[in-house]
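Open question from group meeting: does this chain pack into something compact, or does most of it stay loose? Before anyone orders reagents, we agreed to write out a predicted structure and look at it together. Recording both the input and the output here so the notebook holds the full record.
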Amino acid sequence: MNSLVQLAAEGGTQNPLFPPIPELIIGLLAFVIVFGFLAKKLLPNINRVLEERRAAIEGGMEKAEATQAEAQQVLEDYRAQLADARHEAARLRQEAQEQGAALIAEMRAEGQRQREEIIAAGHAQIEADRKQAAQTLRQDVGRLATELAGKIVGESLADQARQSRTIDRFLDGLENKAADPAKAEAGR
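Structure tokens returned:
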């Protein structure tokens, strides 16, 4: 380094890497003034802006977390409501099936009752028709038997009481004869 100072003292060409001392002092003084100004005025503003940005980012993250928690709660509520709706639908379906089964059983019972009424009415009608047919047949057979007996005997059997007794005896005899072969077959 001595050689450089000597070279500068000799008045030789000046080295571009080493500026003159007064310029170096003025540059250093200007640097300290600019640095001090930046440190006092500009650096607090920069720090304030950075702090606001950090707070906004953290607030946004907290807000996002709160929104996410709220969305999760809404999702859980929705799932709970959906489960309740499914349970209610299953209950209503079961209730409808039970009501349908009860209605079917009731309709079957009503149909059975109506069928029995129709059968009973049919049997009663058949019995009434059979009795009426037997009565009509008995009268027709009696009248024909009386006429035939009157022709065979040669006298009129017009007396109603006698005619009725004769017809009853004749038909009773036929019924007894019809019952005797049935008794004979049953005894075999």
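Observations to bring back to the group:
The chain has a mean pLDDT of 82.
Residues 21-55 form one domain.
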